[in-house]
Design goal:
Blueprint (H helix, E strand, L loop, with lengths): L2 H7 L14 H12 L10 E6 L2 H8 L10 H6 L2 E8 L4 H13 L6 H21 L3 H22 L3 E5 L4 H7 L7 E10 L17 H4 L4
Antiparallel strand pairs: 1-2, 2-4, 3-4
Helix pairs in contact: 2-7
Bound molecules: flavin mononucleotide (FMN).
C-alpha cells in the first residue's frame, strides 16, 4: 500500500470487535511510534497510559457518562486504549532529563553543542511560560502531534483506531490519579479491530476539495 492509499483508507473506527486483541509485537511497535513522535525542541512533554486490561479499560469507560457516553462502548470493545497525557510542568527536572538523554544518545560532539541545545530549548520554554503564558496550550499541541503520529502508525499496521476528544478529562485525571503523577489527560485513542457494527467502515471518506485546503505558489 502506498502513502496515498494509506491516508485515504485509514478511518475512524466507531465500533470494535471485543474478541480481537492486538498482537503484543504490534503493541510494542505502537509504543515505539509514541516514543518517537516529534515535539517542539524535542521537549517530549507527555506520558502515554496504555490500557490493555479489562480492569483498566473499565476504569476509563466508567468516566464516559452524559455527553461523552457515545464513546463508552468504543473503550470497552477496544483491544487497547491510549490516554495521551501532558506534563503539568515543564520543570528543570524534566528539561535536565531530556538533555541528559540527548547526551547519552550521542547528539553532542562538544560541551558547546550541549549548552546550545539547552539554551535553545530554554528559550522556547521561557517564551511560552513568561511572555506568551500559554504553556498548557503549547504542550497540548505537542501531544496532538503524538496523536497524529499514532493514528498514522496504527493505520500502517492495519490496526483500527478511534481518536477521542469526547472525554471527561477531569474525570479521567481523578480516576487514573494523574495529577499526583504531574500529568493531565488531553486526548484518547481506542485501538483494535472494527466489528460489523462499525458504520463508518462502509461510508465514503469526505474531505474538502484539494484547492480549498492547499495552495501552491
Ligand atoms: C482530535 C480528534 C478528536 C476526535 N474525537 C472523536 C470522538 O470523541 N468520538 C468519535 O467517535 N470520533 C472522534 N473523532 C473522529 C473524527 O470525527 C474523524 O476523524 C473525522 O470525522 C474524519 O473521519 P476519519 O477519521 O474517518 O477520516 C475525533 C478525531 C480527532 C482527530
Amino acid at each position: 500500500m502506498n502513502l496515498e492509499q494509506l491516508v485515504t483508507s485509514r478511518r475512524t473506527c466507531k465500533a470494535f470487535d471485543p474478541s480481537r486483541r492486538i498482537e503484543p509485537a504490534l503493541i510494542e511497535q505502537l509504543k515505539t511510534v509514541l516514543r518517537f513522535a516529534p515535539s517542539s525542541v524535542n521537549s517530549q512533554p507527555w506520558h502515554f497510559l496504555l490500557a490493555g486490561s479489562d480492569a483498566a479499560k473499565a476504569t476509563i469507560a466508567d468516566t464516559l457518562k452524559g455527553g461523552y457516553a457515545y464513546n463508552e462502548a468504543k473503550v470497552r470493545g477496544a483491544s487497547h486504549v491510549v490516554v495521551l497525557c501532558a506534563r503539568r510542568e515543564l520543570d528543570a527536572a524534566h528539561l535536565d532529563a531530556v538533555l541528559a538523554q540527548e547526551a547519552a544518545d550521542g547528539r553532542f560532539a562538544t560541551p558547546e553543542a550541549k549548552a546550545g541545545q539547552a539554551n535553545s530549548r530554554g528559550f522556547y520554554v521561557a517564551l511560552h511560560r513568561d511572555q506568551l503564558k500559554d504553556v498548557p496550550a503549547w504542550v497540548d499541541r505537542q501531544v496532538y502531534l503524538a496523536l497524529g503520529t499514532l493514528l498514522m502508525g496504527a493505520a500502517a499496521l492495519g490496526i483500527d483506531a478511534c481518536p477521542m476528544e469526547g472525554i471527561d478529562t477531569a474525570g479521567l485525571d481523578a480516576a487514573l490519579d494523574l495529577e499526583a503523577q504531574g500529568l493531565r489527560s488531553v486526548v484518547m485513542v481506542a485501538l483494535g479491530y472494527g466489528s460489523a457494527q462499525d458504520f463508518n467502515a462502509s461510508l465514503p471518506k469526505s474531505r474538502l476539495p484539494m484547492a480549498s485546503v492547499v495552495t501552491e505558489r
